[in-house]
């Protein structure tokens, strides 16, 4: 047997799943602005910080899904920005996941930089080049609420790991609801849950076809009311825009 034949018979390594983190920006983020802080500026700061943590993750492609106009200004060049209607509850989650199936990325300039001087991220290993990518069935995606500016990126990674054995994984929110919902695409028809449902994990498990279909990861907090700002951890890196706005 020749060395060429040996190479031809060597099985190929399976490609890793293509992973996307989509930050969801809705008008309700402004409701958490403390007294004396402009609601629009607060929304923008929290959304930008949440996007920045997603864009800084390794081996994922960031996407911004928004029902707030003008959010393309907060993302790095080349990041897809998808506008959806102003919805709520399960309809919002489903619309966001379905929007991911139509995302088509455009190539960032080789010299393009973010407002902070950081180079725009490259596609994840194994992913098609920018401009040829629409998220097909079989992808993994995390839908991240845009009001979690100090979320540790490690928790997003844990959700992707949960998808190794589950169809959907949830990062629960302090006080009820979800910080993030991860799923294999296409988003399953039986999954009818919203970010502010009291117990999304329980609701999903009640409708899931099997007991191990829904997994949960460590929880975190969101900024849904002015009082939630006290939950921000000054010792954590990141959330620079929100930090600067609140300390002004």
Shape: globular
What strand line-up does the widest sheet have? 3-2-1-4-6-5-7
How much helix is in the residues?
Answer: 25-40%
Radius of gyration: 19 Å
Q: Number of helical runs?
A: 6
Strand content: 5-15%
Beta strands, count: 7
Q: How confident is the prediction overall: mean pLDDT?
A: 86
| CATH third-level topology | Spore Coat Polysaccharide Biosynthesis Protein SpsA, Chain A
Structural class: alpha/beta
Examine the secondary-structure arrangement and name the CATH architecture.
Alpha-Beta Complex
How far do the termini sit from each other? Answer: 73 Å
List the domain count as a whole number: 1
CATH superfamily membership: Spore Coat Polysaccharide Biosynthesis Protein SpsA, Chain A
The sequence of SSEs as H and E is: HEHEEHEHEEHEH
Largest sheet: 7 strands, mixed
Q: Main attributes?
A:
248 residues; alpha/beta; Spore Coat Polysaccharide Biosynthesis Protein SpsA, Chain A; 7-stranded mixed beta sheet; 6 helices; 15% strand; globular; Nucleotide-diphossugar_trans
Describe the structure.
By secondary structure, the chain is of the alpha/beta class. The protein has one domain (16-105, 117-247): Spore Coat Polysaccharide Biosynthesis Protein SpsA, Chain A (Alpha-Beta Complex). It has six helices and seven strands. It has helices spanning 3-9, 39-55, 89-100, 153-162, 200-207, 240-247, and strands at residues 19-25, 61-66, 81-83, 140-145, 168-172, 178-184, 214-216. It has a seven-stranded mixed β-sheet with strand order 3-2-1-4-6-5-7, with helices on both faces. Residues 104-124 and 126-133 have low confidence and may be disordered. Residues 104-115 have a biased composition (Low complexity).
């Amino acid at each position: 047997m020749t060395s060429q034949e040996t190479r031809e018979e060597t099985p190929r390594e399976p490609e890793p799943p293509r992973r996307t983190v989509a930050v969801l920006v809705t008008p309700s983020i402004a409701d958490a602005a403390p007294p004396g802080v402009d609601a629009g500026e607060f929304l923008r700061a929290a959304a930008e910080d949440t996007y920045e943590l997603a864009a800084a993750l390794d081996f994922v492609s960031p996407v911004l899904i928004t029902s707030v106009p003008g959010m393309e200004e907060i993302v790095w060049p080349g990041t897809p920005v998808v506008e959806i209607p102003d919805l709520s509850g399960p309809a919002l989650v489903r619309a966001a996941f379905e929007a991911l199936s139509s995302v088509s990325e455009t190539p960032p300039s080789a010299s393009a930089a973010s407002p902070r001087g950081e180079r725009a991220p490259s596609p994840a290993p194994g992913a098609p080049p920018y401009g040829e990518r629409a998220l097909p069935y079989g992808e993994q995606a995390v839908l991240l609420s845009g009001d979690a500016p100090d979320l540790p990126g490690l928790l997003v990674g844990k959700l992707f790991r949960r998808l190794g054995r589950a169809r959907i994984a949830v990062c629960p929110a302090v006080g009820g609801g979800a910080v993030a919902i991860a799923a294999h695409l296409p988003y399953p028809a039986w999954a009818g849950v919203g970010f502010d449902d009291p117990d999304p994990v329980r609701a999903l498990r009640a409708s899931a076809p099997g007991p191990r279909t829904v997994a949960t990861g460590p929880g975190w907090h969101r900024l849904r009311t002015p009082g939630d700002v006290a939950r921000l951890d000054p010792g954590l890196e990141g959330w620079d825009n929100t930090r600067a706005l609140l300390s002004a």
